Amino acid sequence: MAGKDSELEKGLHAIVGSFYKYAKDKGGAQALDQAAFQKLLNNELSHQLTDVQSTEAGKDLLKKLDTDKNQLISFEEYWELVALICYAIDGGDWGN
Ligand SMILES: [Ca+2]
């Protein structure tokens, strides 16, 4: 296990770290509220997600990912976004 992290390991750490960089403690669990989620989209995903840089589009995406409808993005819900982006990188169309 000695040596440098692989590119994949670095990427996984970046995925997790980016969530916790913006997440706030919401009743005992870390989650992104709408403002934090928009900040993450604008600061970290402006190249992959060019169409959700506006607040309105960000709100729509939050609604789509917020499966338990609590207006917050949990780590599990964020993971769904990561999966969608990976699918898009692989050539899929995740838009609809
Ligand atoms: Ca939620």
Strand elements, count: 2
CATH class of the domain at 30-89: Mainly Alpha
Percentage beta strand: 5-15%
Task: Report the helical percentage.
Answer: 55-70%
* Radius of gyration using CA atoms only: 14 Å
Shape, principal axes of CA atoms: globular
Number of DSSP helical runs: 4
How can the largest sheet be summarized? Answer: 2 strands, antiparallel
CATH topology of the domain at 30-89: Recoverin, domain 1
Distance between the termini: 41 Å
Provide mean pLDDT, rounded. Answer: 93
Strand order within the widest beta sheet: 1-2
Please state the structural category. mainly alpha
Low-confidence parts: none
Protein model, in words:
The protein has 96 residues and is mainly alpha-helical. The protein has a domain at 30-89: Recoverin, domain 1 (Orthogonal Bundle). Helices cover 55% and strands 6% of the residues. The longest helix is centred in the N-terminal third of the chain and has 16 residues, at 7-22. The structure holds calcium ion.
